[in-house]
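[scheduler] slot 2 assigned
[scheduler] job type: sequence-to-structure, two independent chains
[scheduler] chain ordering preserved from manifest
[runner] begin chain α
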Amino acid sequence: MIRIFDLCIASCALALVSIALLPPAQGATFKVLHSFSAYTDDCYPASGSLIMDANHNLYGTTNGGAFPCNFGTVFEVASDGSEFPLYTFPGGVGGAAPQALVMDKKGNLWGTATDGGQNGGGLIFKISSRGRESTIHTFLGQPSDGFAPYGAMVADSSGILYGTTFGGGSHGFGAVFKLAPDGTESLVYSFRGGRDGLDPFAGLIIDPQNNLYGTTDYGGKVSVCPEDFGGCGTVFRLSPSGTKTLLYKFKGPPNDGETVMSNVITDASGDFYGTTNGGGRAGCFSDKGCGVVFKLAPDGTETVLYYFAGEKSDGSNPAAGLVEDGAGNLYGTTEFGGGVAPCNGADGCGTVFKIAPDGTETILHFFGTGGHGATPLAGLVADGAGNFYGTAARGGAFGYGTVFEITP
């Protein structure tokens, strides 16, 4: 077995905090650092936020796809803007569609691939600082294992990795897994569907007591949301012993969000913040709402901080989580909206936004013009000096996505 030494999220502590102490926004400047070209690197950086090392080098993944794309890559964008693939996945048992990454203190990258592996349900991989890939675990699916991991993994102080799978588990509705330092994988919790939640899409965060916090895409059994999906989504806590507590179940439109594709972050007061991909006010796809930004207090009281409106004036359908600055402003991306160059029939190619503590929204950037990229599916990472970095899944100079820098 391969051991995991000194694992931590790159440029972050292991604790429950996903918040960088940054100066508040003033005015935004936008710059494309790299446009993916398929023939020289790969296509569609659509999975998870970038991570950053101490030298401000960025690391991420592309999902790949049909020719001329590969089956996905792990890439690096150096501080000077140059990009090169660290590893290209072969598909099949070697894995495909890699997701978000974590980095250990030796510079090794760890992540999951959603597809491929021995049973087609994805795998956990490690890429050394020299670009050598090792498959650590292959997911086997129901009933003894998870299936199709999407979210970023997180590590505790002893080097144990935790993550989620969208499917699999004892009941087929997804699971939380852990990977021990000796490479042994086991399930911590299997979702039961319905009121319990199902299909956890996003990754987890962890507190100093090793409690895990996460979201499920569906579940909660709220009648306004489709019964075949079992509800509008949930926020949960999982104790080190595997005891699950449901912190909140979303109620759906018109007053609440639904379909939680993002992780949550937390502040020093213990409040949680996140986004929902749908719900809220009328509009957007099938008039089911354009998504919301929410706040969840420690006692389970939820407040919608902002309802996205879509169309020309606003973004819609955020698929990723948030970053908070030292003044309490929240930053994120929306997959659609903005009204520029309609993408896939939607009202625009996406946005970067800021939400002030009083709920006031500012659009920092509209995608869809000048080769900037389109449909950002991942969130942002901050460098501590007021700059944010992210990816757009499509568009750019060649149509296959971009890596960008934005300074509010």
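[runner] end chain α
[runner] begin chain β
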Amino acid sequence: MSDIAIRVDLDEVKRQADATAEALRALRLQFDLAQFEFTRDVRIAPLEIPHSHPVLTMNTRCLGRPDALLAVYLHE
């Protein structure tokens, strides 16, 4: 193994995760979703398949498609 360090750039992944989180917050302000929510903890994991347990986890694939993001959120 080499001792030479490499730089890993995760800026785009972070930007997409932040944008997804912000879009989800905007949808929650636009719609009264309280009756459908069972948790306030949401994890944004760009490459994972959305799932609800043990933590509600969403990916960034619905970025730019609010209707799809809302559908995934409500489904999970």
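[runner] end chain β
[qc] chain β: The mean pLDDT is 94.
[scheduler] slot 2 released
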